[in-house]
Amino acid sequence: MGKNNKRKRTNALTQPSKLPTPPSDSPSSTNLIDSDDLECTVNVLETLCEFPEELSGKEMKDLKRKVHELYRVMAEGSGLGNSLTSKISTALSDYRFTDALIHLFEMYTRNLQPKLGALQRWVRECDATSEADGSPGDPEALKCLDMILRIANNSHSKNVSTDKKVFGTDGLSLEEGNDNVIQSKQIWKARENNREIAIWKMIQEGTLFDKPPPKTYPGFRPVHHVKAAERKPPNLYDSTVYGSSPGAITLTPISERPIPIKVNVPNVPGAFVILDVFTPEECLQIVKVAESIGWEKDEASSGSALNKSSILAKNFIWLADFEFLNHFYKSIKPFIPLNAPIDLNGNGGGKVRGINSRFRIYQYTENQLYRPHIDGSWPSAGLNLKTGEYLHDSSLENDPLWSRYTLLIYLNGKEDIGPNNSGCTTFFLPKKNQIGFMESFSVNPIQGSVLCFPHGDTIGSLLHEGSAVEKGGIKYVIRTDLLYEAKGFGQFKPPASVSVKIGGKDEEGLGG
Question: pTM here?
Fold first, then answer.
């Protein structure tokens, strides 16, 4: 940004604004700020963050004082910030975990439900205090995390007075001095591996491809590209979506593949594994596509994600074709919930309609992990059948689809990933009858299997992490979602941050 532009934007903020007069019956001050004025203000603040030397001028005196007053208002929870949600958010962002714990316990005892965005933000703030190697950090932050989970899952004790005794008369005791807030349980595996293809060994030996891989993989083409600064939230790297044509991934004939079976994950309500959804050969093909076309990096350029200690995996975004989705959906439909679970607002019941065609394929190498988080919900991605335009939400306006369950497809197994809990998906749950403590349960990847669990604003959404891959290992996994009817079953429109055009159509089992 040039010097003249910086001066113009600074002057625009320091001079009095002509604000519109709010309607007499307006119950709030939301309409006091004109959108153009707000945009100008944000631009000025962003410029000052980038060029702090501009604050040295005398003309900035009033601006600095007003910004300080604004921070005080936000920190003290005045005005719109006097809700419990705002108080918790402010306390966590300032690392005042004792204050946050008091407010969280009040929300817990009053049986109040925050919005999904607040829950996800709180989880990130608590996680920001953990160590870079994935080990637990501040015990008080983890105790806040435990209370967040209890609020999100409605896991109230029958006798709240018992909980108060656990907390202590001042609401703060929680067995001070006990730093072992997270208690790890035995790692679980649905079965011992059957036949698997060691993809990592092939890559190391140079035998993944019989000949140099093509720059454009057969049956795949780019269908959407977003510049880094235009991503939401803004990123340091561009993002490309690749679409596939029917038959791009050769599917093993039904007569030659094992029958899928379902196994519930012990001690993790709502989570289950479906074995043998994909064959090792199909998994190998998908990895070949990503390795041939190339992986993209993912790193937020601003926001709370900057404070996370995750060493993020590289990714490849694939908009799967109808043929592949139909096979996937038919393989898992006998085992999945046919109706959406209840959400935090007490709504639920929409019928399952298919799988989100937007697949995020991740490559985790040595020491890479995805720190504890709650997965967000997604609309039904697809292409406009008339124009070929990529649509983040392709469902019809009067027939919206919204995700309620995460699907994780493991493309390789323990021979590639490593022993112990290397590359596991680890769930964190509140410990029964002991507020302030959590238990962790790890699931070992099995090539070709699918891990399914509730997410978003669903009651029972699971806090989890992609645990670190140990030295010498590599992990390939796909994240996608189960889609359910949303109209008439509570909130169904995508948040403004992800909403784009509505168009195209949805077909049974295809999800766009």
Answer: 0.75
Q: Which residues neighbour 477 within 8 Å (Cβ) at sequence distance 6 or greater?
A: 361, 362, 364, 408, 409, 410, 411, 445, 466
Q: For residue 159, how many other CB atoms are within 10 A of its CB? A: 9
Residues 6+ apart with CB under 8 A from 419: 470
Residues 101, 143: contact at Cβ < 8 Å? Answer: yes
Tell me the pLDDT tens digit for each residue of 419-446.
777 899 999 999 887 888 889 999 999 9
Record the tokens describing residue 112, joined without a space: 């109040």
- CA–CA distance, 411 with 247 (Å, rounded to integer): 19
Q: Is residue 446 part of a domain?
A: yes
pLDDT digits 0-9 by tens, 219-267: 999 999 999 888 877 888 999 999 999 999 999 999 999 999 999 999 9
Per-residue pLDDT at 27: 40
Which H or E element spans position 371? strand 370-373
Distance, CA of 165 to CA of 74 (rounded, Å): 32
Q: How confident is the model at residue 66 (pLDDT cuts 50, 70, 90)?
A: confident
Strand duo 438-443 + 182-184: pairing? parallel
Beta-bridge partner residues of 443? 188, 425
For residues 334-344, give the mean pLDDT. Answer: 89
Same domain, 126 and 217: no
Strand bridging mode 463-466 / 450-454: unpaired
CA distance 193 to 445: 10
Instruction: Count up the domains in the chain and report the number.
Output: 2
3-state secondary structure of 273: strand
Q: What is the radius of gyration, based on Cα positions, of the chain?
A: 25
* Domain-embedded: residue 29: yes
- DSSP characters over 179-234: ---EEE---B-SS---S---HHHHHHHT-SSSSPPPSS-TTEEEEEEE-GGGSSS-
Structure tokens at 402: 């919204």
Q: Which of 185, 203, 133, 134 is CA-nearest to residue 411?
A: 203
All residues at 6 or more sequence positions from 151 whose CB lies less than 8 Å from its CB, including other chains: 104, 107, 108, 112, 113, 114, 119
Q: Torsion over CA of 89, 90, 96 and 101, rounded to 10 degrees?
A: -40
Backbone angles phi, psi at 380, to 5 degrees: -85, 110
- pLDDT surpasses 90 at 54: no
Here the CATH number for the domain that contains residue 488 is: 2.60.120.620
Give the highest mean pLDDT range of 59-63, 215-219, 251-255, 383-387: 251-255
In whole angstroms, what separates CA 494 from the centre of its chain? 14
Higher local confidence (pLDDT), 353 or 69: 353
| Amino acid code (one letter) for 155 | S
| Domain containing residue 401 | 186-498
Is 117 within 8 Å of 152 (Cβ atoms)? no
φ, ψ dihedrals at 508, nearest 5°:
-50, 120
